[in-house]
UniProtKB/TrEMBL annotation, chains A, B, C, D, E, F:
GO MF terms, alphabetically ordered: peroxiredoxin activity
InterPro entries in the record: 4CMD/NDH-1_regulator, AhpD-like, CMD-like
PANTHER family: 4-CARBOXYMUCONOLACTONE DECARBOXYLASE FAMILY PROTEIN, GAMMA-CARBOXYMUCONOLACTONE DECARBOXYLASE
Organism name: Roseibium marinum
Stated name of the protein: 4-carboxymuconolactone decarboxylase
Annotated Carboxymuconolactone decarboxylase-like domain residues: 32-118
Length: 127, 127, 127, 127, 127, 127
């Protein structure tokens, strides 16, 4: 196991312990090595880096996925959950999304708000 | 003067006191009301909101402008300066940019690193 | 109430009188001030400006939302309704969409045509 | 009939013989000439050109639609079918999609994998 | 010569008579048939269609190229010239650009204003 | 050294032997580990995979970078060089680019042709 993969696995253990298994179950038959490669790259080579705290990293991701819009709906929802798992509150998530109206336009921001609403409703229903 | 405009002006006073005058000098002949409208919307209606601290807001902007890529080069450079003005250090800026390789792809992240390098070099040359 | 907000409200009174209330009902709990801010910015600071007639403004919006694609489906449908409300006919809407095949590619244009079809069918069903 | 239209029709005869009729049935009432224009431009003026073999052209399309993401889901699925019709195997399709994680980011690549999965499942169900 | 090509050529005769020759000189050695294909598709199959007047078509193009940002700078400048050639005035061009702040974000709109400024300055210098 | 990193290094040895050193010299002071991480991810985890030949992978990259446009100019030029290094000829590169007019629109395709022209001219000047 590489260092980056190890660091990635240690990090998702805190954020979303089932993530690698879920991804492997969903994609590894189609693309051998997918889950491991994603954990190594996204979490081991990025989120686990020093120099910026994890909560801020997650809020940056929320902002970027909102601004990119369109193709990132499912990923935005997963990352809103991860962001709450780092200790951010709902208001911080909403503010990071709404600020993107300035940079990505109103449709992107509104779609981001809709995604957050869905996540919050699902969490409330599960509570 | 509206409340949102007033809040926006108070905020840029801290980040970049000449911003409204610079924008007015550059665009208001072409588009009357441009600078005021931008300050009201971007700073008064977004950055000045409660619920998320200004430094994190700026790092979110760095991330989103990096991920959007292409059309946002000049704005990324200005916002890197604003982000440093909120107390973020260079490493935090670089980390927010590089994380976008995961979401916007390598070209976007590399172009963001190039923009940061230019800002840092300009600041060092001016120091 | 600011001037821009007042101008925005006067304009949506003609296009879609319930818009601010609908938006407030949908988002203001999540994001206080959302509906007012949107009306002030989009309608008061843009659509209500002199220098370009409202129908052409709306057709420009149709074109841009089509070209941007992906993240703008719901907004495209609302703006097709607003465009018809300014006196544009269906053929003008379709032509503005199809022209975007040149600039945004065929998938964007075809998705735009699908959105228009849905709006027209809903209007016909309601007639 | 123009040369480009003729070349386009000859080519789709091999890839997807019903394509022009399906497109005409779906869009020509809304936009007279749509299907003919699409066949002439996309197939006659691009896919039918010499200089690059059809299978590679189709894999290039898969890659680009994956990277563009968001607005291209339905077109990606149709083009995965066309790509298999040129003799590409499923593994080649999956590899062309996954490579886009480097250039368009992970969300784009994952959405592309999901689209391929849907096409493969539909083909298997129809087999 | 096809009908669409003929219609396209008749239209650019009014907007920019040298366009096909300029494009052929620039790209036909690299890509035989480029200029003819572009005139047939963009002008013959889109701009020359009935159902929407040419000036509005051009303003729609300005809006979309602004919103798409990044990759469309040179094309935006050419189309601003074409739009003025249809009888639009500078204010209409500026308004179509600025409205895109709502849909594509501030960076896109500001880059569009910069492009318009360059075109206007070049026209004034040539006057 | 991880397996993926080793595979990536073996592959760039053929395509562009100086790549890791050039990237390290340019970015590793700003972002420790950058060059190694890029080689591991892009080349070890993607290009070096079985299932699709390297030349087709590179043509897919050309297509996607063209369609993404804007933010990918420098990367497109480097990848055109890599694609020629896999044995593709110039015509194949041009065709992969021009086909993107269908999916990403004319501006994206034209900008791609311009990038190819620059690469070819540089190669001819160096010959």
């Amino acid at each position: 196991m590489t260092d980056a993969l190890e660091r990635g696995r240690a990090l998702i253990e805190k954020l979303n312990p089932d993530l690698e298994a879920v991804l492997a179950g969903r994609y590894d038959d189609l693309l051998p090595g997918f889950a491991e490669s994603l954990v190594e790259w996204a979490y081991g080579r990025h989120y686990a880096r020093p120099g910026l705290d994890l909560k801020t990293r997650q809020l940056c991701t929320i902002a970027a996925l909102t601004a990119l819009g369109g193709q990132t709906g499912p990923q935005l929802k997963i990352n809103i959950e991860h962001t709450l798992a780092t200790g951010a509150n709902r208001e911080e998530v909403i503010e990071a999304i709404w600020q993107m109206a300035v940079y990505g336009g109103l449709p992107a921001a509104i779609n981001g708000l809709n995604a957050a609403r869905e996540v919050f409703d699902e969490l409330d229903a599960a509570a």
